[in-house]
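User: Predict structure, ligand adenosine-5'-diphosphate.
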Amino acid sequence: SQCEKDSFDSRYVGMSSSGVTQGRGRNLEERTIADDICKESMIARGGYGEVWKCSRHGDPVAVKIFVKDSEESCERERKIYTSGLLRHPNIVEYIATDKKCLHFGIELWLIMKYYRYGSLDRHIINNSITPVKAHRILYSITSALHFLHNPVNTSYGVAYGGIAHRDLKTPNILVEDERGNCVVTDFGLSVLADDFKPGAPPVKVMVGTKRYMAPEVLNGTINTNELDAFCVADMYAFGLVMWEILRRAETNGKASEHQIPYQNSLCEHPTIDDIRRVVVEQCVRPELEERWKDDECLSVVSNLMKECWTPSPDGRPTATRIKKKLETICYEMKNGF
Ligand code: ADP
Ligand code: MG
Ligand code: MG
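Assistant: Predicted complex:
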């Protein structure tokens, strides 16, 4: 049967609530984590399948369900989550991957912690934010990127990191709490050092969300042999995310309405050529707001954001530099946290 109930992510088997221990063989009757999860409501639908809010022993979990033919996409995400110690307060909390056997075949389930505040785009569409909260959101994302972009070595090899996200945007950031702590999610297009080793299949460049693509991706000049080039492209996308956040940050009690990047310069469903014309040829960038100068954090961030947008990849700040810069803005202390 194609419905063997061996856990797809064997690491889970050892800690299964059913008491199954690793290496006991492939008993068809073994329960795996997917058997303990009930679907509750659908959160989102994409090309690969759907994301569901589910419950496991009464506690909420989120499950990204990959339908037939999306195995590759699931495997990429699973590989990123299990590639090392990808545990960080600002990275989505991965639980396990499993196969769910149904009468019509198999679904692959990527099981994660459920974030009840949902994605950052929805959150800032519905709420304006204080500069303190904007600072916390930005610091969360910066910390995640700093962690992802910098590999950590041990004497035995790389422990974690060295990952370019390649699809950074507000829908791929989840809000963890009211204060603005966030996590980065959706590693379906991410690349790691292994992808650049000799013999690895060539890395595809034209992937990700068109609107957030860096100039060097749009015009094909990115150095596809280097992981770092893709990390730098992430920083361009982060610049656009910064802009979305700054628009929703209040100064004197007022904020601008949410816009997606280049909302005034591109149609709703632009082609790559449309975007290349605007971003690369005309060098258009999102509009800046005078009012940001009234707040220390917003003015510092608006300058960093502009650096992230520079057409030349070499001119962009690293996540590490932005993180340090944000640490100099002592909101927490001023506000008595
Ligand atoms: P896709 O590859 O289709 O973009 P994502 O992993 O980004 O899939 O998930 C799609 C959407 O589902 C996200 O934008 C977010 O709104 C929601 N979502 C994803 N994971 C979670 C989670 N763990 N908790 C709450 N909502 C989630
Ligand atoms: Mg997504
Ligand atoms: Mg995705």
